[in-house]
Write a structure and sequence with these properties.
This protein has a 6-stranded parallel β-sheet. The chain has a 3-stranded parallel β-sheet with strand order 1-2-3. By secondary structure, it is an alpha/beta fold. The longest helix is centred in the N-terminal third of the chain and has 21 residues.
């Protein structure tokens, strides 16, 4: 199988964005709040949004299944308060569940959390539990910066996050460390903030000792790890200077990277530096980088093409494209086994 561990519902029907706009308008004035049950979408509307977009490209590129979560830039945890985020997260998670119910062999749902700046992460536990136990989510997205680019949250190693980690371990689901929209003009959302966050999260984990307390916790750092593979020597040196064990011993039992890197040299570097067992195939298709690369004639986000040209052994290629995802996402593996795959 080819499992894409990083997909977002970027093509949701317009009614979802309209619901969100109405919710935001109601925060600052007399506008009516939207229907708490969420936008009224028929199955045919969802099918059209998927079959003409993600599913078409999956078929063209030979991707069997995508782990599918709400649109990252739409999470926008900085908007409103916890109650705002709670309602929004629930509606987005419900929609990803509906996609997976319509296409159970092509999509497995992942969830966003109702984070809010300055609010105890423990408040996210009920929605995390609902998403996993009722909606079948196999993973969640965890935003290390709910402020939207101002980095007011404590580092991921802070004990404030521990109730969330305890629940992730109990439910046996991993978290993808993924920020949302930047409202800081210094950081472009997808070109700056996303990649900065990947690098920052890895350094926070290097500085701390989180996995001594949570040896079963699994975190995925997306977008190829940001600057991490390129500066692997720097991180190795910093680990030594800070008195930490080697990166392999300190982090690589719990931290994984995806292949959302949009050119061949970048994929080659990632797979040449990071052990194959720590890399999961992903494309984030119809995401931040759309369009055709004029140098190759292929879509930038057609990452399978790069991975399969990177010179991996057949065993390592199978690990990257399927086996690692089944290991890091045990609920996904269980789902596939129930389907006879």
């Amino acid at each position: 199988m080819i499992i894409d561990c990083h997909g977002h519902y970027t093509t949701a029907p317009p009614a979802l964005a309209q619901w969100r706009e109405q919710q935001i308008a109601a925060l600052g004035g007399p506008a009516a709040a939207p229907d708490p049950a969420g936008p009224h979408l028929g199955d045919d509307e969802i099918r059209e949004s998927i079959e003409c977009n993600q599913l078409r490209l999956m078929d063209e590129r030979g991707i069997d299944l995508t782990v599918f979560s709400p649109r990252a830039s739409f999470m926008a945890h900085h908007v409103g308060d916890f109650a705002t985020s709670q309602k929004w997260a629930a509606r987005c998670n419900d929609l990803c569940h509906r996609v997976s119910a319509l296409y159970p062999e092509r999509f497995a749902p992942a969830a966003m959390l109702p984070q809010s700046p300055g609010v105890d992460p423990a408040t996210c536990v009920p929605e995390l539990t609902r998403a996993v136990e009722e909606l079948g989510a196999v993973a969640v997205n965890l935003n290390p910066d709910p402020s939207g680019g101002h980095w007011s949250a404590p580092p991921l190693t802070d004990r404030a996050w521990y109730p969330l980690y305890e629940k992730l371990v109990e439910l046996d689901v991993p978290a993808m460390v993924h920020v949302s929209t930047s409202v800081n003009p210094a950081f472009h959302t997808t070109g700056g903030h996303y990649l900065n966050a990947d690098t920052t999260a890895f350094m926070q984990l290097l500085q701390g000792d989180l996995f001594a307390d949570f040896p079963a916790l699994r975190l995925i750092v997306p977008h190829g790890g940001g600057a991490v593979p390129y500066h692997w020597g720097r991180f190795r040196g910093l680990a030594a200077a800070l008195g930490r064990p080697t990166l392999e011993e300190h982090l690589l039992g719990n931290v994984f990277f995806d292949t959302c890197v949009y050119h061949q040299p970048g994929i080659d570097l990632l797979l040449g530096v990071v052990p194959a067992r720590n890399v999961l195939f992903a494309s984030e298709m119809i995401g931040a980088v759309r369009g055709i690369d004029p140098r190759t004639g292929f879509a930038f986000d057609d990452t399978r093409r790069y991975v399969e040209s990177a010179g991996l052994s057949p065993e390592d290629l199978a690990a990257v494209e399927e086996r690692n995802a089944r290991t890091v996402y045990p609920r996904l593996d269980a789902l596939l086994r129930r389907q006879g795959r």
